[in-house]
Structure formats: C-alpha cells, structure tokens
C-alpha cells in the first residue's frame, strides 16, 4: 500500500512537471511563430511542408527525408534568430 501511494505521488509530481514543461514549450513556440510570420523571412513559409507532403505522395523516401531535414534545419535557424533578438534595445529607461 505504501509503495502504491509513493508511486501515485511521484506520478502526480511528474505529471505537473511535464505539464509545466509542455506549457513553457507551447509558449515559446507561440512567440516563435508570431516572430516568423511577421518577419521578412516568412515568404514561402509553408513551402517546406509542401515539399515533404509531395515527396511522401510520390513515395520518394529519400526526397521526403531530405525535405524533412531541411525543414528541421530551417526551423532551428528561425528559432535561434527569434531567441537572439533584442526586444529591449529600443526601450528607454528613465
């Protein structure tokens, strides 16, 4: 009985931590997507998704894999651009 209670308590704590982490990740993704949609780099924003879908529809596994890799790298570059922006540079502190 004591073991079941301990496992239940750990499960609840783990669940809360996981929920918090997911919430933080969702918040960052939301901010990131706002950034890329409003940025100059947003032209052709969904073309990489179309490339992946077209390769899958054509049953071209290598092309799908390459397109997915390019998509991942583009996402990483855009996310790093978002994280490196200085949102306080234009603020005056008086």
What layout of secondary structure does this protein have?
Blueprint: H1 2-38, H2 47-57, H3 61-84
Summarize the structure.
The chain is mainly α and 94 residues long.
Question: How would you characterize this protein structure?
Answer:
This protein has 94 residues and is mostly helical. The termini are far apart. Helices cover 77% and strands 0% of the residues.
Number of strands: 0
Report how far the terminal alpha carbons are from each other: 61 Å
Q: Radius of gyration, Cα only, in angstroms?
A: 20 Å
Question: What structural category do the secondary elements indicate?
Answer: mainly alpha
**Count of helix runs:** 3
Largest sheet: none
Name the helix and strand elements from N-terminus to C-terminus, one letter apiece: HHH
- Low-pLDDT sequence parts: none
State the helicity in percent bands: over 70%
Shape: flat
Look at the structure and give the mean pLDDT: 77
What is the beta-strand fraction? Answer: under 5%
Please give a handful of descriptors for the protein shown.
mainly alpha; about 90 residues; single chain; 3 helices
């Amino acid at each position: 009985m004591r073991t079941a209670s301990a496992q239940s308590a750990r499960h609840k704590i783990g669940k809360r931590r996981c929920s918090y982490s997911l919430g933080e990740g969702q918040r960052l993704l939301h901010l990131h997507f706002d950034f890329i949609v409003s940025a100059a780099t947003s032209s052709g924003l969904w073309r990489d998704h179309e490339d992946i879908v077209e390769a899958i529809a054509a049953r071209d596994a290598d092309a799908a894999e390459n397109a997915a890799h390019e998509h991942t790298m583009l996402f990483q570059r855009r996310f790093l651009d978002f994280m490196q922006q200085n949102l306080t540079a234009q603020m005056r502190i008086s």
